[in-house]
């Protein structure tokens, strides 16, 4: 599948539309989108009982049937982000079966897009994202500006496009740091309403 087309599906993700004209670097707060985490030896089997297909390999992701995403963060840990499915899974996992453990997900969730995203990443992260094949749907667990992050790289509107999650306790610091560097690169934060 063409990676540009694949991420164009994000335009339908949780009823969001992406602006037509992307500047050199835009940073968007997507923390409002509901997330659900689960881990444990039987987490994959439990997700199957909830009609959730999971990625085949650790550190990879795929779209859910209705447009959200599921990331496999390891052999037995999963992150689901979707306006409808995540809240349903939170309710379904209030009394989990043995060896299934819900994970509280109160992340800062952001998106980076634009021609200068890679310059920002070079200044804040020691991982070489240019070495990745995005057609393999990789999930990268690394650090950015000293903060542990989960990253899904891709392409949107023929521009580098990255989804990033971090623990909310470091959210303000990471947001301010990325915005400061983004401003130096000629970009910065845009309002969520530009995506709706």
| CATH third-level topology of the largest domain | Gyrase A, domain 2
Q: What fraction, in percent, of the residue positions are helical?
A: 10-25%
Taking the alpha carbons of the first and last residues, their distance comes to 26 Å
Could you name the ranges where pLDDT drops below 50 across 5 or more consecutive residues? 1-20
Instruction: Specify Rg, calculated over alpha carbons.
Output: 16 Å
Largest beta-sheet details: 6 strands, mixed
Identify the CATH architecture of the largest domain.
Answer: 2-Layer Sandwich
**In percent, how much strand structure appears in the residues?**
25-35%
Round the mean pLDDT to the nearest integer and report it. Answer: 86
> What coarse outline follows from CA principal-axis ratios?
elongated
Query: Which H/E pattern describes the elements?
Result: HEEHEEEHEEHEEEHE
SSE-based structural type:
alpha+beta
The total number of structural domains is 2
CATH class division of the largest domain: Alpha Beta
- Kindly report the name of the CATH homologous superfamily of the largest domain: Probable tRNA modification gtpase trme, domain 1
Note the total helix count: 5
DSSP summary, beta strand count: 11
Largest sheet, spatial ordering of strands: 8-9-10-7-1-11
What are its keywords?
elongated, alpha+beta, Gyrase A, domain 2, 196 residues, six-stranded mixed beta sheet
What is this structure's SSE topology?
Blueprint: H1 3-8, E1 26-29, E2 35-39, H2 43-49, E3 60-63, E4 69-72, E5 77-81, H3 85-92, E6 101-103, E7 108-113, H4 117-124, E8 140-144, E9 147-156, E10 159-166, H5 171-184, E11 188-189
């Amino acid at each position: 599948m063409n990676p540009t087309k694949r991420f164009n599906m994000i335009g339908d993700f949780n009823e969001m539309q992406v602006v037509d004209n992307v500047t050199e670097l835009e940073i968007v707060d997507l923390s409002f989108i509901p997330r659900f985490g689960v881990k444990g030896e039987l987490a994959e089997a439990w997700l199957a009982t909830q009609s959730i297909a999971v990625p085949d390999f650790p550190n990879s992701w795929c779209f859910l049937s209705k447009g959200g995403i599921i990331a496999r963060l390891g052999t037995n840990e999963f992150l689901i982000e979707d306006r409808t499915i995540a809240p349903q899974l939170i309710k379904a996992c209030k009394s989990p079966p043995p060896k299934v453990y819900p994970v509280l997900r109160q992340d800062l969730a952001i998106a980076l897009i634009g021609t200068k995203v890679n310059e920002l990443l070079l200044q804040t992260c020691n991982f070489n994202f240019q070495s990745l094949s995005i057609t393999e749907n990789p999930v990268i667990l690394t650090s950015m500006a000293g903060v542990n992050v989960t990253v899904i790289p891709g392409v949107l509107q023929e521009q580098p496009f990255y989804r990033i999650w971090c623990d909310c306790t470091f959210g303000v610091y990471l947001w301010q740091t990325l915005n400061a560097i983004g401003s130096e690169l000629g970009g910065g934060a845009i309002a969520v309403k530009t995506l709706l």
